[in-house]
Design brief:
Largest sheet of chain A: 5 strands, parallel
Number of helices of chain A: 10
Order of helices and strands of chain A: EHEHHHHEHEHHEHH
Helix content of chain A: 55-70%
Shape of chain A: globular
Strand content of chain A: 5-15%
Number of strands of chain A: 5
Oligomer: homodimer
Radius of gyration of chain A: 16 Å
Amino acid sequence: MKKIITISREFGSAGGTIGKMVAERLGYEYYDKDLIFKTAAKANMSPDEAIKLDENLSHGFGFGQSLFNLYSSPLDEKLYEAQKNVIREFAEKGNCVIVGRNANAILAEFDATLHVFISANPNWRVKYLKADKMKDMPEDKIMAHLQKIDKARQKYCSYFTNTEFGVAKYYDVCLYSSVVGIDKCVDVICSLAK
Amino acid sequence: MKKIITISREFGSAGGTIGKMVAERLGYEYYDKDLIFKTAAKANMSPDEAIKLDENLSHGFGFGQSLFNLYSSPLDEKLYEAQKNVIREFAEKGNCVIVGRNANAILAEFDATLHVFISANPNWRVKYLKADKMKDMPEDKIMAHLQKIDKARQKYCSYFTNTEFGVAKYYDVCLYSSVVGIDKCVDVICSLAK
């Protein structure tokens, strides 16, 4: 039985939703990047630092826009280290699904892990976001946004880990959710976890 | 039901074995790169050309060593086109597993396809090859060989298609066979084919 499931994903590929469904079905805890960030900030930042980062969070981090820029100062390196520790603490507890923050690379030496990557057709991702998180944004803007985030996540991953974002050999299973379907992704992940 | 399953794979990752097992379980035809090559050569080459290519085949193609060099002359371009046509003919018949030769990219516009990529830990691949295809080669030589073939397949894929070898978004499912296990890979592929 895999005790730690990490999910890396393209923005808008339903990786978070899939992660939540997997956690629910297996009775696991679910940790996403916002929780990891907040826990890390609370434990390691002064109130001033936390406010500064929180502004970045609301403007860019949540949607990933300034994801890479965010990590260019010593403060950002400090935050990265803090997030790494939070991810390790969550993983030590076991029975969890961790979405985002390169958890696959951070937990490379942990046992009983299943490292998942979710990607999807870009047009499908636009429709998925338009239906939920990004209702008010025109589709062409969502598409431009996606492409920015894809690049930011690639850079972030290459910068902080010795893996590459979305390259199959760094994950145990990769699924293309727009073809496979969300429910079937959940089935496959749960079956591989057992 | 998916009528066409393509399997791209790292050398030594058991992709061929997995493909054969999937074909057997689903009652599908199994086509590998040697069959594709031979069918293409027979239909499109003069006897002299076929002999020349067959020499390349026995020296390098089979183990992939001169895979990229093989495709640098006009004759090689001609062979590539011929292989493309053979793959399309196999796919038209349906109910088949096609291993190798970038079939995922060649059949991009076909319906009812499932595009699979198999990779594995390099040490595991060395042991897998040592136990079967490459009994007489020392392990360090097998490892060096693997790395060459990985590069050749990447180049070959980038040169002839608009996809990248082993990048998750170009496949519907990618599996790391050394962690997932061969039998479980077969299970997942068959379950996604249904």
